[in-house]
Amino acid sequence: MNRRTFLKTLGLGAAAWVAPGCRSSSATGIPATSRRPRNIVFILADDIGYGDLSCYGPTPGLTPFIDAYVKSGVRFTHVHSPSSVCTPTRFSIFTGSYAWRTPGTFIAPGDAALLIPPSWTTLQRLMQRSGMVTGAVGKWHLGMGPGPGKTDWNKPISPSANDTGFDYTFLMAATADRVPCVYVENGTVVGLDPNDPIEVNYKHNYPGEPDGKRDRATLKMDWDIGHNMAVINGIGRIGYMKGGKKAIWKDEEMADVFTEKACAFMERHKDEPFFLYLGTNDIHVPRVPHPRFVGSTGMGVRGDAIRQFDDTVRRVIEKLYELGLREETLVVITSDNGPVLNDGYKDHAVELNGNHLPNNGLKGWKFTPYLGGTRVPFIVSWPGTIPGGQTCDAHFSLVDLAATFAVLRGVNIPEKAFPDSYDVSACFLDPAQPSPRKDLICQDPLMSLCTKRWKYILPAGSGNNPLKVKDPTLGRLYDLTNDPTENKNLAKQRPDVAKQLFGRLKAAVIQGHTN
Ligand code: CA
User: Fold this and answer.
1) Residue 401 has pLDDT above 80, yes or no
2) Are 120 and 127 in contact (CB under 8 A)?
3) How far is the CA of 337 from the centre of ligand 1 (A)?
4) Stretch 447-456: mean pLDDT, rounded?
């Protein structure tokens, strides 16, 4: 692709685009490794698999912006999410601590209490301490308020995500398939109407409210499993709610709303360092892309949601150029776990998938302990400091972002904070550098320990607790180098390796830290 075509693909004018590497770190007189990003933008997709971006997978044209954009950055090939589902991955990212260390951090209900104790050192708190304004926009799914039956959605919610270290938040409390289906800005529901108070519970419906089972024939998107409780915008959800009619989000507009809020945050704070977390709803269910993307991929709403995610990234990157901040900003784009086709709605994701490989041919999906559940796309870009067009096979985990961002910003990590987070900034700045991490642990919730070569999964039924395992060879062992699709369980043939990895997993639990 020539530069003109590249610019056209990016939607950028020649004046706005600065070719990668045109302002080298030597031109600034500062060695690359001592430069600090003034800003960090962290985009976390939801349920986008290792093969869902065309620059990773075999299906061309799904993500035209990112495919061009990746040429200005580094494409990582061996990065894992610490879990194959949402909440524990997000908890781990923001706390630098594996979620399984903290009970109650698996998939959170929509009315969960705030899962991150406000007293903890968090990634966002250290970004604040480094002199940044911190913002969180989009999917949270880490709870807010005192919890079920106690959180009053009609008043300022406390504690809120802001109490974990964000100066500004505009969030969906949990997921798009869970109530409450409203946006929460700085701890207050957007569009509150005192004459139409919001009530939420996960046990029973409210008299007179539509019901996903009883009123199934009226739904605009039928459910397959589970999503049959409250009916919001003609779509069955998990949990029940009533009231707040003016506050209910419009699913088709969600990506635009989050993108606009993210861009507005950057614009408001363009004159000071900022940290922006943008957690997209795409491509989690229910997949309801804006009409302008419907039919854009021929793969139904799942493919169209991927295209919508691509457009979100485009708009954020273009905003950085518009503000003149691109070369001052480190951008990380990744996903919280592996892909899933049928996730509880009859949205034809399976039928219309065609030959696409959401997990890029790996074994497993979201909700599984295999590589397809935890290997995620991961792109780092910082034009002018990190040469673009590189690929890096460093082996690390999203739990490492906490220490990595802290080091990049030159802020001290307090003792005992981030117990499982490694600083992998050297790999960001120079993809030839080896990862400092040997082992990483994932949960689905079954725990597994993964080195670059080997993967050991606890025996099924071990209750996610290695301390209860009597015979480690009843678990599963895969040689990822020679068997990347995890087909041949070697636990009995190589009990030495199985026991060694099991011992390290057990020690990680007992010691309370892994770094
Ligand atoms: Ca997810």
Assistant:
1) yes
2) no
3) 5
4) 97
Q: What is the pLDDT of residues 237-268, one digit of tens each?
A: 999 999 999 999 999 999 999 999 999 999 99
**Distance in Å, CA 44 to ligand 1 centroid:** 9
Question: Cα(90) to centroid of ligand 1, in Å?
Answer: 9
Cβ-count burial of 197 within 10 angstroms (0-12 exposed, 13-18 middle, 19+ buried)? middle
Determine the distance separating the centroid of ligand 1 and the alpha carbon of 336, expressed in angstroms. Answer: 5
Burial class (CB within 10 angstroms; exposed 0-12, middle 13-18, buried 19+) of 27 = exposed
Q: What is the mean pLDDT of residues 337-363?
A: 98
What letter does residue 20 receive in the DSSP assignment?
Answer: T
Q: Are 499 and 472 in contact (CB under 8 A)?
A: yes
The span from the CA of 157 to the CA of 300, in Å, is 37
**What is the SS3 string spanning 223-251?**
ECCCCCCEEECCEECECEEECCCCCECCH
Q: Is the pTM of this model over 0.90?
A: yes
The pLDDT score that the predictor gives to residue 66 is 98
Q: Is 400 left (phi over 0), alpha (psi -120 to 50) or beta?
A: alpha
How far is Cα 88 from Cα 84, in angstroms, rounded to an integer?
8
